[in-house]
């Protein structure tokens, strides 16, 4: 098993990509902590996956809740080796109609939330002199998208954040990388009308949408010791959409 005896902390692990990563990581022998604002789904997901997985209710944009949850996890598990910053939302609107609240809701969760969780957990990784951090960005952070200025800015921010963290933490044996998924079949993309989905499909050379498992396979590699010489990178996982 690639990650035997490690402790992994996954944000937004109740559903979609986060749940897919949790499932894969359990199969690879880690203890997994999933946290999410959606307690009902999070508890169910943990039960369904089974094994050494634990759910905690936590809002990544609430500094007090993040600190409390991380302290509880450290008391319980002594360490956190791998952090997957996955929780994220969309709140799409054309720029002309986008309110400050639309903007701040997405930046506050996707970008500030990622900052808060990373800052809190990296202290323990520094003490351990070991850590793997994988941030889930998006190809939209690289290419932009009409109606998603807030989301694109948050994901572009995560890319800059990833590179700065990689430079600050490299000397402590902590790698920090980002995955930029294209179109992955989850709840987030579930409501997109069929016609728009078909248009997206035409832009994907591999002619299929991605699955949470595709993201999980890359997260697994970047979290493993096989990727110990890779840091500060953004890997597109998009069936060839952006190249
Ligand atoms: N699905 C895609 O096509 C796609 C593409 C690129 C990037 N992404 C990114 O992947 C990540 C996962 O998205 P998904 O597609 O699995 O969507 P999803 O909606 O299935 O999962 C997101 C999870 O994050 C949780 N969450 C939301 N706000 C939170 C908060 N404040 N604190 C803690 N948890 C919170 C939700 O409850 C949910 O369980 C997101 O960051 C998203 O931006 C998704």
Overall mean pLDDT stands at 97
**Overall 3D form:** globular
Decide which structural class fits the backbone.
alpha/beta
Number of separate structural domains:
1
Q: List the ligand species.
A: nicotinamide-adenine-dinucleotide
Number of separate helices = 9
* Largest sheet entry: 7 strands, parallel
CATH superfamily: NAD(P)-binding Rossmann-like Domain
Low-confidence stretches: none
What is the rounded Rg? 17 Å
Assign the CATH topology: Rossmann fold
Strands, total number: 7
CATH class category name: Alpha Beta
The ordered H/E elements are: EHEHEHEHEHHEHHHE
Q: Estimate percent helicity.
A: 40-55%
Question: In summary, what is this structure?
Answer:
The protein has 243 residues and is of the alpha/beta class.
Question: Can you describe this structure?
Answer:
By secondary structure, this protein is α/β, with parallel strands linked by helices. It has one domain (7-237): Rossmann fold. Helices cover 48% and strands 16% of the residues. It contains nine helices and seven strands; from the N terminus they run E-H-E-H-E-H-E-H-E-H-H-E-H-H-H-E. A seven-stranded parallel β-sheet has the order 3-2-1-4-5-6-7, sandwiched between helices. The longest helix has 29 residues, at 100-128. It is globular. The protein binds nicotinamide-adenine-dinucleotide (NAD). The site of nicotinamide-adenine-dinucleotide (NAD) has 28 residues, from helix 1, helix 4 and helix 7.
């Amino acid at each position: 098993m690639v990650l035997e005896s490690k402790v992994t902390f996954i944000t937004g692990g109740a559903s979609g990509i986060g749940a897919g990563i949790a499932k894969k990581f359990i199969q690879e022998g880690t203890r997994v902590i999933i946290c999410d604002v959606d307690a009902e789904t999070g508890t169910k997901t943990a039960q369904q996956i089974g094994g050494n997985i634990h759910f905690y209710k936590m809002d990544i944009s609430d500094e007090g809740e993040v600190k409390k949850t991380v302290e509880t996890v450290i008391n319980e598990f002594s360490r956190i080796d791998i952090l997957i910053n996955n929780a994220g939302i969309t709140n799409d609107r054309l720029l002309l109609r986008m309110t400050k609240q639309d903007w701040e809701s997405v930046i506050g969760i996707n970008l500030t939330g990622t900052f808060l969780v990373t800052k809190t957990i990296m202290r323990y990784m520094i003490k351990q002199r070991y850590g793997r951090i994988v941030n889930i960005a998006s190809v939209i952070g690289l290419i932009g998208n009409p109606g998603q200025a807030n989301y694109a800015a948050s994901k572009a921010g995560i890319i800059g954040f990833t590179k700065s963290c990689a430079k600050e933490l490299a000397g402590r044996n902590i790698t920090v990388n980002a995955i930029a998924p294209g179109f992955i079949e989850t709840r987030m993309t579930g409501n997109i009308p069929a016609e728009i989905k078909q248009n997206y499909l035409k832009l994907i050379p591999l002619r299929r949408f991605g699955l949470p498992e595709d993201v999980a396979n890359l997260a697994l590699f970047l979290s493993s010791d096989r990727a110990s010489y890779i840091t500060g990178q953004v890997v597109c996982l998009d069936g060839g959409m952006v190249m």
